[in-house]
C-alpha cells in the first residue's frame, strides 16, 4: 500500500516531462536535451556525494620536481611569433566563419553571445588586454540598457594556452620527459603548443591535429617562415580518423579544452570515449589537459569516476614551487589549469 503514492508521483512526473517536451519546437529541443543531460549528471553526482570531487580516490603519483630553464633568446623568438600572429588573425583569433557555442554548464552560467568576448590567451596577456582597452580597441564592460550608464563586466574566453601556461607545461610539468619523444596536440589551432614545444624542448616530433583548414594553413605558414619544419608537422584531420596516432605514435597528448566550445554533448562524449579507448592501449603515455580531465569529462556529461578508473592516474604538480618570478593570484590560478596524467 505504501508504494502506491510513489508510483503515482513517478507517473505524474513522466507525464509532465512529456508535456514539457511537446511544447518545444525542433530548434529548441536540442538545447533542452543538453540541459536535461547536464542536470541529470549534476543531480546524480550530488545524490552519490561525488559532486565536484568524484575522483578523489583515484590513483596518483607525485611529480619529480624537475625544472627546465628557457633562455631569454627563445622567449624573444616566441614573442616575435606572437607579434606576427597578431597581424594575421583578429583579436578573438577565430577563423573566418568559425562557429563556437557557449557550453550550457554551471561554469558558464550567465554567459551569452552579448556579454562574452573571445580573446586569445596566447596572443594577449591581461596587460595586453588593458592596453587594448586604453586604445579603445576593446572594452571590459557592456551596456545592459543602451544609452544608459548601467554596465556590467564582460566575460572573456580564450581557446589557446597562455604563454605562462606553456612555460609551466614545458619547463615544469614535462621538464625531463619529452626528449626524443613524440608530442601530439589535439586541436592545435594557432599552433601555440607546437611553437613553444619546438623552442622549449628536445622532442623528436611535434604533431598538430587541426580540423579547421584555415587554422591548418596558418600553422603551416608560420612553421615554414620560422623554419620549424624539421620537427613540427600539422595535419588537417579529425582526431577520430587517426586512432594509431594516439595508440602507437604519441608519447605525450596535449588537449586544451578542445571539444567543449565546438561540439554538442553527444559528440563530446563520443570523442572522449574514443580518446580513452585509444590512449589506453599505450601504457605510460602522458596526457596533459587544460583544465583538469575530471572537469572536462563532467562538463561533457560523463562520469569522470567511471572513465578514469583503469585509464589514468594523475601526476600531482607543484604549482607554487617558485619556478618563475613571484606570481600573483591570477597567474597562479592560470597555471593551475594545467594537469598531467599517466596512462596505466
What does this structure look like?
An eight-stranded mixed beta sheet has the order 1-11-12-10-9-6-7-8, sandwiched between helices. It has a two-stranded parallel ribbon with strand order 2-5. Strands 3-4 form a two-stranded antiparallel sheet. It is built from twelve helices and twelve strands. Strand 7 (205-209), helix 7 (213-225) and strand 8 form a beta-alpha-beta unit. Helix 5 packs across helix 6 (192-200). The longest helix has 22 residues, at 26-47. It has helices at residues 3-22, 26-47, 72-88, 126-134, 163-173, 192-200, 213-225, 243-249, 265-279, 293-299, 304-308, 329-335, and strands spanning 60-62, 116-118, 141-143, 151-153, 155-157, 182-186, 205-209, 232-235, 252-256, 286-290, 312-316, 339-343. By secondary structure, the chain is α/β, with parallel strands linked by helices.
Question: Secondary-structure blueprint of this entry?
Answer:
Layout: H1 3-22, H2 26-47, E1 60-62, H3 72-88, E2 116-118, H4 126-134, E3 141-143, E4 151-153, E5 155-157, H5 163-173, E6 182-186, H6 192-200, E7 205-209, H7 213-225, E8 232-235, H8 243-249, E9 252-256, H9 265-279, E10 286-290, H10 293-299, H11 304-308, E11 312-316, H12 329-335, E12 339-343
Parallel strand pairs: 1-11, 2-5, 6-7, 6-9, 7-8, 9-10
Antiparallel strand pairs: 3-4, 10-12, 11-12
Amino acid at each position: 500500500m505504501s508504494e502506491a503514492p510513489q508510483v503515482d508521483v513517478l507517473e505524474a512526473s513522466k507525464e509532465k516531462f512529456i508535456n514539457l517536451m511537446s511544447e518545444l519546437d525542433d530548434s529548441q529541443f536540442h538545447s533542452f536535451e543538453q540541459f536535461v543531460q547536464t542536470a541529470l549528471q549534476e543531480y546524480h553526482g550530488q545524490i552519490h556525494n561525488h559532486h565536484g570531487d568524484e575522483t578523489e580516490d583515484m590513483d596518483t603519483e607525485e611529480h619529480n620536481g624537475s625544472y627546465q630553464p628557457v633562455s631569454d633568446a627563445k622567449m624573444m623568438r616566441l614573442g616575435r611569433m606572437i607579434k606576427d600572429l597578431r597581424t594575421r588573425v583578429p583579436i578573438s583569433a577565430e577563423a573566418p566563419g568559425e562557429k563556437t557555442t557557449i557550453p550550457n554548464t554551471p561554469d558558464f552560467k550567465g554567459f551569452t553571445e552579448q556579454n562574452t568576448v573571445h580573446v586569445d590567451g596566447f596572443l594577449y596577456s591581461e596587460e595586453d588586454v588593458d592596453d587594448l582597452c586604453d586604445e579603445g580597441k576593446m572594452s571590459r564592460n557592456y551596456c545592459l540598457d543602451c544609452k544608459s550608464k548601467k554596465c556590467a563586466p564582460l566575460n572573456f574566453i580564450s581557446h589557446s594556452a597562455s604563454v605562462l601556461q606553456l612555460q609551466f607545461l614545458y619547463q615544469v610539468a614535462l621538464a625531463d620527459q619529452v626528449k626524443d619523444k613524440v608530442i601530439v596536440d589535439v586541436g592545435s589551432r594557432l599552433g601555440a603548443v607546437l611553437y613553444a614545444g619546438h623552442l622549449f624542448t628536445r622532442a623528436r616530433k611535434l604533431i598538430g591535429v587541426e580540423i579547421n583548414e584555415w587554422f591548418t594553413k596558418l600553422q603551416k605558414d608560420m612553421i615554414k617562415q620560422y623554419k620549424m619544419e624539421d620537427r613540427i608537422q600539422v595535419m588537417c584531420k579529425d582526431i577520430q580518423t587517426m586512432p594509431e596516432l594516439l595508440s602507437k605514435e604519441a608519447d605525450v597528448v596535449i588537449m586544451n579544452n578542445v571539444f567543449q566550445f565546438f561540439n554538442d554533448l553527444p559528440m563530446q562524449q563520443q570523442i572522449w570515449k574514443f580518446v580513452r579507448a585509444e590512449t589506453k592501449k599505450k601504457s605510460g603515455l602522458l596526457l596533459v589537459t587544460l583544465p583538469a580531465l575530471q572537469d572536462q569529462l563532467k562538463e561533457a556529461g560523463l562520469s569522470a569516476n567511471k572513465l578514469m578508473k583503469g585509464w589514468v592516474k594523475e601526476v600531482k604538480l607543484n604549482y607554487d614551487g617558485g619556478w618563475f618570478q613571484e606570481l600573483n593570484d591570477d597567474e597562479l590560478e592560470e597555471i593551475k589549469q594545467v594537469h598531467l596524467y599517466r596512462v596505466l
